[in-house]
Automatic annotation (TrEMBL):
Residues 1-20 form the signal peptide. The keyword Transmembrane applies. This is Aspartic peptidase domain-containing protein. Residues 419-430 have a biased composition (Pro residues). Coiled coil: none annotated. It comes from the Eukaryota.
């Protein structure tokens, strides 16, 4: 920093820097090999733009490595440092081709405070447990990978990542502006994951040059996590969720072009509006899984690790369910049948009482001595009261013997009527 200040002052003052200054390696080479901060300052102090495939920085003096005044770098910065570096800073850089950073000793801060876009890949490996990684204005990147523990990372403006977005061992994952990414992988023990605006995880056709998968994978270990992606509507190829997931809320998710895989070690119940997926694999401690909108005709289901009772709405209408859980299916059918038949029986009884009441009124009008009146009354189907049914059967047999009833139909009961009618039939209390 002490070296930098006079240089920056000079840069502001120097008339040669009012216009853009493009620097290239020369000698027909496309790379810069930097071995010290001094060398970097000598080479780049006049530059606003560096055009090179690669700027490889292998070593430098202790302290902060900071190159001011440079706004554009077309190629990839490669930091591979061993020294006692406090910070890496590119305070004026706005456009960058790519960044690869590896370290074996740790660094306190990686700060690209003005960086807006990275056409290629940002790849920061093992920065150190104490490291703060900040790209607070970066909104568009070809790919982003931060692997290894850090104390903090700031990607709070990031909106689109065409290829991979890989975050491993982050203390927490907050991507408040992220809308799309080709492939998202988050692993480790983040205390929370928030991506309120994420709508799709699908690799674009414009990332052929980048090594990229497609879809989204979350591997969360040990501590429990609530997962909510309120805007996520479609995922290409794979949506893989594994970990101690306490709650799962994907209220907008409609399409997974490939496999939806959920494996939780915490008891989890969820209800997803998914309309289509090539396959669904559920494992672990899932207590209830419902897909009310799913067309299971075209979805291959792998749910063998789950009890049938955990297969909720949608899944329980599948062929898979019929094949594997058929017994339970019938018993549910039985319950439904009972639920329909019992009210029907009660309705029948009410009808019978109404009919009986009307006939009684008519008889009252005639009032002509003893009339034997035979009336057909519907019995509750299925005979909910066995004894009453048997009693009715015996009574009917008696009546037939006496020749009072020439014909009766199954399920009907003949009842003798006298001028003073018997009390109305009362349903058995069950
Ligand atoms: C260019 O090549 C010459 C001769 O091969 C060499 O002395 C010089 O250091 C090279 N310049 C750079 C920037 O590598
Ligand atoms: C930088 O180093 C690489 C290999 O490490 C070499 O191929 C390349 O020519 C070097 N570039 C310059 C400008 O010395
Ligand atoms: C960097 O600092 C360490 C101790 O902090 C010292 O031993 C080493 O010599 C320094 N290296 C340079 C190039 O100044
Ligand atoms: C830097 O790059 C951006 C995007 O590629 C471009 O619009 C801008 O003109 C460049 N600036 C300079 C000084 O080269
Ligand atoms: C990230 O940086 C921006 C700008 O400096 C700041 O407003 C924001 O609070 C930071 N976010 C985190 C999580 O540190
Ligand atoms: C699924 O299959 C059933 C029976 O084969 C059929 O009635 C239904 O229309 C199918 N659903 C769709 C969305 O194709
Ligand atoms: C079902 O899957 C087949 C083959 O994967 C596909 O061709 C067909 O369009 C799908 N049908 C529906 C209704 O999604």
């Amino acid at each position: 920093m002490t070296i930098m200040r006079p240089l920056v002052a000079l840069a502001i003052w120097a008339p040669s820097l009012i216009t853009a200054q493009v620097c290239t390696p020369g000698n027909g080479s496309s790379t810069y090999n930097i071995t010290s901060t001094r060398q970097a300052l000598d080479l780049f102090s006049d530059c606003t733009t560096i055009v090179a495939d690669q700027i490889s920085i292998d070593d430098w003096d202790n302290g902060t490595f900071s190159l001011g005044g440079i706004t554009n770098i077309s190629g990839t910065l490669i930091y591979n440092y061993e020294g006692n570096v406090e910070a890496l800073e590119m305070p004026d850089l706005r456009y960058l081709g790519g960044l690869v950073s590896t370290t074996s000793t740790g660094i306190a801060s990686i700060l690209f405070s003005q960086l807006l876009t990275v056409t290629g890949r940002v790849d920061i490996r093992e920065p150190g447990v104490e490291t703060q990684v900040s790209f607070p204005k970066l909104w568009n990147a070809g790919a982003v990978g931060i692997t290894g523990p850090v104390s903090l990372f700031n990607l709070s403006a990031l909106q689109t990542v065409a290829g991979d977005l890989i975050l491993e061992d982050m203390p927490a994952v907050a991507l408040p502006q992220l809308q799309t990414a080709g492939y998202i992988r988050i692993s480790g023990m983040p205390s929370y994951i928030t991506m309120p605006l994420l709508t799709s995880a699908a690799r674009g056709s414009d990332v052929e040059a980048l090594p990229s998968s497609s879809g989204m994978e979350i591997n969360q270990e040990n501590s429990g996590i609530d997962l909510e992606f309120p805007a996520l509507a479609s995922v290409d190829r794979l949506l893989y969720i594994q970990g101690t997931v306490i709650s799962l809320n994907l209220p907008s998710l409609e399409y997974v072009s490939g496999t939806l895989h959920i494996d939780t070690s915490a008891p989890l119940s969820f209800d997803l509006p998914l309309a289509s997926a090539a396959s669904i694999e559920l494992e672990g401690d899932i207590t209830r899984a419902s897909f009310p909108s799913l067309d299971t005709n075209n979805t291959s289901l792998r749910l063998d690790a789950l009890p049938c009772a955990a297969l909720g709405t949608g899944l329980d209408e599948s062929d898979y369910y019929d094949t594997r859980c058929g017994q339970q299916h019938i018993s549910t059918g039985g319950k439904i049948a009972a639920g329909v038949v019992v009210p029907l029986g009660v309705l029948g009884i009410i009808m019978a009482i109404i009919v009986w009441y009307k006939k009684r009124m008519r008889r009252g009008e005639k009032a002509s001595g003893r009339v034997v009146d035979v009336e057909m009354v519907d019995l509750p189907a299925g005979g909910s009261g066995g004894e009453a049914g048997a009693a009715g059967e015996r009574e009917r047999d008696r009546d037939i013997e006496r020749g009072r009833i020439p014909v009766t139909q199954p399920g009907m009961m003949a009842r003798e009527r006298s001028p003073t009618p018997p009390p109305p039939y009362e349903p058995r209390q069950e």
